[in-house]
Amino acid sequence: MTWASIGDALTDQLETCTQVSNWKPANRFYMDRYKRNQVEAAISEGVGSSGTRPTAELRHRLKRLLDTDRTLGRNPRSVDPEQAAYAFYAEDAPGSGVEVWFSSYEAFALLIAFNLLEHGFPQQKTVLALRRIRTALEREHKRILKLDPRILFDQDALQHRAGPGQMAVGSTKPVYLVITTERKRAANPLKGITICRGEIELMQFMKAALASYTIFELTIPAHQLDYHLAKTEPSQRGRAAT
Predict the structure, then answer these.
(1) For the chain, what are the domain ranges?
(2) 181 partner at 20 to 30 Å CA-CA among 16, 89, 127, 216?
(3) Sequential DSSP letters for the chain
(4) Is there a contact between 120 and 186 (Cβ–Cβ < 8 Å)?
């Protein structure tokens, strides 16, 4: 599915739901919780995995990220964000047999972490980076989902703005997650992580310090994942995330 078709699908979904049930998009996003099977299915759709079900490899990678987050533990009283909060959970592990549910943001954080692994970043450093930026990224994710996808993914507006020297993006209001890395990939390549709104802010940030950068646009995957999550169904007897 292309970004244009996702934008069209999102627009159709919004129009249909609004007409049928007076649905309010901005209010829906943060009432939902999802089982792990739903998160796996939505991420699988988001990364374009072939087949009708998530692959064993994708499920294994997501499980390792979740296990790493749990294994690192947390201390809510710590002033260090890497120790104070989980990257993918809201609270400590429940008792045995209790199902763990994930918020829309936590599913999104898992998608970002999966993409970082795909780009060769170490697993533990990835989890710690997402812990470090959780407060800012969760706030930005909420803001992004309140933006109208019909405006964000307006193909006519995007074509009008395209020109020499412009970054090729599929969003009229792009937001970038910027990973600062060592110029030479070492054992600790991930130095910093930040959020930039728009190309001007991104360019200003990159010019401020000489480094290597890995950049992810966020508005497209945020809306895309939310679209796919809305289509999933919780398993009747799903595996409980640890």
Answers:
(1) 3-230
(2) 89
(3) --HHHHHHHHHHHHHHHHHHH---HHHHTTT-EE-HHHHHHHHHHHTT-SSSS--HHHHHHHHHHHHHHHHH---TT-S-HHHHS-SS-SSS--STTPPP-EEHHHHHHHHHHHHHHHTT--HHHHHHHHHHTHHHHHHHHHHHHTS-HHHHT-HHHHHHH--TT----S-SS-EEEEEEE-SS--SS-EEEEEEEEHHHHHHHHHHHS--EEEEEE-HHHHHHHHHHHHT----TTPPPP-
(4) no
